[in-house]
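STRUCTURE:
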């Protein structure tokens, strides 16, 4: 069962579609699972490399990981956040993706916090509810 990644031109998101067979892939028109749009472009998928948690944490602790980070440049913050999320190897959710998209568009963290007042609401951090700081 092949899984392919697509870019949806309607909702501007990267989505993954699971096809039951290669025949289905050729016979059916793909549709975005988020918005139902049909304007999809197939992407070349990233290669996954299995790494130990220790190896990932070592990479995160490396001071060179901060090279090129400019805390006053939203696009620089977005690149760093995307890199760190990839190192973690976990999907951090749609809210995280939206924050990165907004940073890449040039919005400052303050503008994002103002536009998304419920950002981080409901996150469980040791029994307490924390918003963005």
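SEQUENCE:
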């Amino acid at each position: 069962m092949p899984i392919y990644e697509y870019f949806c031109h309607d909702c501007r998101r990267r989505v993954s579609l699971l096809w039951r067979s290669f025949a289905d892939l050729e016979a059916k028109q793909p549709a975005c699972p988020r918005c139902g749009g049909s304007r999809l472009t197939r992407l070349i998928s990233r290669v996954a490399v299995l790494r130990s948690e220790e190896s990932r944490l070592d990479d995160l602790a490396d001071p060179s990981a901060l090279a090129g980070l400019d805390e006053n440049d939203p696009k620089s913050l977005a690149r760093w956040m995307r890199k760190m999320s990839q190192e973690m190897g976990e999907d951090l959710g749609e809210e995280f993706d939206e924050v990165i998209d907004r940073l890449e568009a040039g919005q400052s963290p303050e503008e994002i916090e103002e536009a998304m007042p419920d950002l981080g609401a409901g996150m469980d951090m040791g029994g307490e509810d924390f918003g963005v700081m």
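REMARK: The first helix runs from residue 22 to 27.
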